[in-house]
Amino acid sequence: MSQHSNSLTALALQKFKKNFWGVLSFGFIVICAFLVVFAYVFAPDDTQNANQMHVSIHSKKPGFIVQMLTIPSKEKKEESLVKTIFFGKKNTETEIPLTSYRTENNQLFITEYTDGTIEGVEKEILLNDFPDNMSVQQVTSQYIKSKTFYLGTDKYGRDVLSRMLIGMRISFSIGFVAVFISLLIGITLGALAGYFEGKVDAIIMWFINVTWSIPTLLLVIAITLTLGKGFWQVFVAVGLTMWVEVARIVRGQVLSVKQMQYVTAARALGYHDYRIITKHILPNIMAPVIVISAANFAAAILIESGLSFLGIGAQPPMPSWGAMIKDHYSYIILGKPYLAIIPGIAIMSLVMAFMLVGNALRDALDVKS
User: Which residues have CB under 8 Å from 144's CB, separation 6+?
Assistant: First the structure.
């Protein structure tokens, strides 16, 4: 006879697996996490922040194809493979979009790309710009390639797909850091308020209520302006505004659980308060905390996108989905709405995935079901 695990974790996992949308969303999040870690490996533009600009091919539609001449840099800087994979390579090469090119008497003549309103001017490219002893045929075969922009280009001529992949790092990072900070503060204050009650509870609840009364976005903006604009400042600011919900939930759970017999038994055995809270109470109240963490992850992504849209989030040239919407929202009425819709759909998809996972976890961890 086969043995089945009856542990609460195993039962919760079985219920979670039966939730189609929860499993699908979790798989989507895992794929996104993999792309975040290896963003520069999959990005067509693997330079730092995917900031290779080609103004002549700005705002092109998805699937745009152009011939690209790459002129290598004469300054060769050794970069480690690990650094290139995780942080991209320094932008030292020059790329020139071409309408056409021709060779004549071991000379290379190119016509730079134009949108058709004006005729491009043909000019000669010196072979001295390339490694020594290369013929014009070798140059054209090695340094002129057809390049496809699968999601088009933005208003600066940068590859949108590469910016989307690297910008996903901001959304994931803000989620993890903000949720970690909110859990650290929220669980600590909530557990202290619920366990000790009395004056400790009154002081902490007053602080929670004051923080709760301030609009989240305004508080984040205030903290961001105090700490300064930047990558890590936004992480800290968002995390410092999301702990309130965690603290209230933990406090309520601790007030309920501290009356249980196993807590009374721990006190009778002489265990100190720190051990009772960390070893006996907190492990038994983590189910609702996990659910609220998934919701906070989604909320953090939305808040960061809003801050970037307002210009106080991640600063250029670092890509951010919110900043991409800000840069191109006017294009919605200029006939190129995809420049703002693509990052908007990405934000919506990631937020929805975390919300669906949170709902699935809530159902799976519900002991009454």
Answer: 67, 68, 69, 70, 98, 101
Confidence band (pLDDT; 50, 70, 90) for 367? low
Full DSSP string of 158-215: -BHHHHHHHHHHHHHHHHHHHHHHHHHHHHHHHHHHHHH-HHHHHHHHHHHHHHHHS-
- Cβ neighbours of residue 85 closer than 8 Å, sequence gap 6 or more: 38, 40, 41
Instruction: Express each pLDDT in 342-360 by its tens digit.
Output: 999 999 999 999 999 999 9
At 266, which helix (H) or strand (E)?
A: helix 261-268
The domains found in the chain, sorted by start residue, are: 63-149 (no CATH), 160-364 (1.10.3720.10)
Contacts of 360 (CB under 8 A, 6+ apart): 16, 19, 21, 22, 23, 25, 26
Q: Which two tokens stand for residue 127?
A: 């072979």
200-221 pLDDT per residue, tens: 999 999 999 998 888 877 888 8
Secondary structure element (H or E) that encloses residue 239, with its range:
helix 231-239
pTM of the model: 0.87
What's the per-residue H, E or C state across 102-134? EEECCEEEEEECCCCCCCCCEEEECHHHCCCCC
Of 310, 322, 313, the residue nearest 350 (C-alpha): 322
Check residue 368 and report its DSSP letter: T
Exposed / middle / buried, residue 77 (Cβ in 10 Å: 0-12, 13-18, 19+) = exposed
For residue range 241-290, what is the model confidence (pLDDT) as tens digits? 889 999 999 999 999 998 888 888 988 888 888 999 988 899 888 888 98
Give the distance from CA 101 to its chain's centroid: 40
Phi, psi at residue 265, to the nearest 5°? -65, -40
Q: Is the pLDDT of residue 224 over 70?
A: yes
Amino acid 37: pLDDT: 92
- Tokens 């590859």 correspond to 159
Instruction: Write the CA distances from 345 to 20, 43, 51, 142, 174, integer angstroms.
Output: 21, 19, 22, 37, 18
* Torsion angle (degrees, nearest 10) of CA 286, 287, 291, 297: 30
CA angle, 45 as apex, 42 and 48 as ends, to 5°? 100
Query: Maximum distance among all alpha carbons in the chain?
Result: 96
